[in-house]
Amino acid sequence: MYPHPKVRATQEALDGAGALDGAGALSLVRLLPDAVHTAAAAAAALDVEIGQIANSLVFATADGPLLVLTSGAHRVNTVNLAATIGVTRLRRATPEFVREHTGQVIGGVAPVGHPRPLRTLVDIALDKYDEIWAAGGVPRAVFPTTYPELLRVTSGTPAEVA
Predict the structure, then answer these.
(1) Helix or strand (DSSP H, E) at 23
(2) 56/49 Cα distance (integer angstroms)
(3) Which residues span the domain enclosing 45?
(4) Radius of gyration of the CA atoms of the chain, in A
(5) What is 71-124 written as a DSSP string?
(6) What are the C-alpha distances in Å from 84 to residues 79, 88, 130?
(7) What is the mean pLDDT of the chain?
(8) Which residue of 66, 100, 146, 153 lies most exposed, with the fewest beta carbons within 10 A?
(9) Which residues neighbour 63 within 8 Å (Cβ) at sequence distance 6 or greater?
């Protein structure tokens, strides 16, 4: 059993969705020895390319929270993304807003396991990798998955976000 309730919630959400990793096995949250607060740190700890890291970024819009799962290899272009989704303003959420809507802290926000489902966009750049890694609810927890699985378990929409 996982020691942290946010990690347990993430694993329970993955289990409930029947989420798979890149090898076709059930996806399991793994605890790293240390917290990884950046895509570069996560990639180094996992010995994978930075582009394989799915950063979970929460934005505030007039319509509520927006979760963007973006490749660690680039940054979100908020102006273009706002136009793509039809909002006038897209701003990075405060830590309090992130915690309120995800139940998790910045640096460990998982794509799943939130109190309520979030509108989610998934970066199309992640599709070029056979296996991608996402946060598991706290900054030292991660889990492996694939692009199709990430879309499925989050009910996300593919999007060009860079």
Answers:
(1) none
(2) 17
(3) 5-159
(4) 14
(5) ETTS---HHHHHHHHT-S--EEPPHHHHHHHHSS-TT---SS--SS--EEEEEG
(6) 9, 10, 27
(7) 93
(8) 100
(9) 87, 119
Neighbours of 74 (CB within 10 A): 15
pTM above 0.90?
yes
Residue at token pair 């329970």: 12
Q: How confident is the model at residue 2 (pLDDT cuts 50, 70, 90)?
A: low
Q: How many domains does the chain have?
A: 1
Quick check: 129 pLDDT over 80?
yes
Q: Which of 109, 140, 104, 144 is nearest to 126 (CA)?
A: 144
Q: Determine how many CB atoms are found less than 10 A away from the CB of residue 155.
A: 13
Q: Is the pLDDT of residue 1 over 60?
A: no
Distance CA 97, CA 18 (A): 29
State the DSSP code for 80.
H
Q: Using DSSP bridges, classify how beta strands 119-123 and 132-135 pair: parallel, antiparallel or unpaired.
A: unpaired
* Helical ranges in the chain per DSSP H: 5-17, 39-46, 78-85, 95-102, 147-154
Looking up residue 139, the CATH number of its domain turns out to be 3.90.960.10
Alpha helices in 77-146 (DSSP H): 78-85, 95-102
